What does this fold into?
Amino acid sequence: MKALQRNHLKMKFLSAAENVGVARLTVAAMAGQIDFNLSEIEEIKVAVSEAVSNAVLHGYAGEQGYIEVEVIAEDGVLRVIVTDHGRGIDDLARARQPSFSTDPERMGLGFSFMESFMDQLEVSSVPGQGTRVEMVKRPGGGVGGHGQHD
Amino acid sequence: MPLVYERFGDILVLRPQGDLDLGAVEEFRRVAERALDENKCRKLLINLKGVTFIDSSGLGVILGRYKRISLLGGQMAFTQVPLKVKPILELSGLLKIIPFYDTEKKALERM
It folds into this structure.
C-alpha cells in the first residue's frame, strides 16, 4: 500500500481514563500509515498513553476538562501533540526526572517512557494554564528501530 | 479489564486480560486487593499471558501489589510475559526485583 504524503488528525475528548485507550489506538492507526514496524508502533502507543494519562491524572487531577491530541504524519515522520488546559506543572525539571511520582502506586516513568520511545520530546507547561507535550518519531530511529519490519 | 484469579496452596495467581492502562488499574487494584485479603496468600503470581498492552499506570498497580506482598514477607513473580510487554517491564526495572518464569507450572513449582 502506498504511504500517504501527508495526513493530519485532531481529536478532542474529555479527560476520562477510558479515553487513554481511544487516543492510543487512534494514534497507532495513523502510525500504521507510515513505515513503522510493530515494535515501534508499540512504543508510540506507550508514549501516547503516558502523555494522555498525565493530562488526565495531573493536568485535570480528577476534574473534567478537555484533552486535545493532534497527529501529523508528514514526510515519513510522525508528530504527536497532546495538550491539556489543566493545572500545569510547577516544576517541570523535577517532574521529568525518572521515578519522580506524587503517588506511591505510580512509578514516575511517564516522561522516561516518552523520552525513550520517541525521537524527540518537548514539554511546555504554564502553571494554572496547562501542559503541551510534543513528540516526534521516525521509522528506524528509536529503541525498536532495529527490529523486523512485519 | 476482566481479572481472573485462582489459588494454589499459598500462591494466588492473577490473570489480567486486555490493556493494563489507566482505564484498567482501579479494577485491577480492587480485585487484587480483595483476592489477597480473602485468600490470605503471601505469594502472588501474575500471569501476563492475556495482557495486550501495559504502560506506567499498569506497572504502577503491579508495583503497589509488590509493595504489599513484600511488607508481609511474601514473594511475587511473573509468568508468561508476552513479547510486546516484556520490553516495558525490562525498561521499568521491575524485572530486576520481580522474577519471571516461562510457564505457570514452573512458577508454581519454584515459588
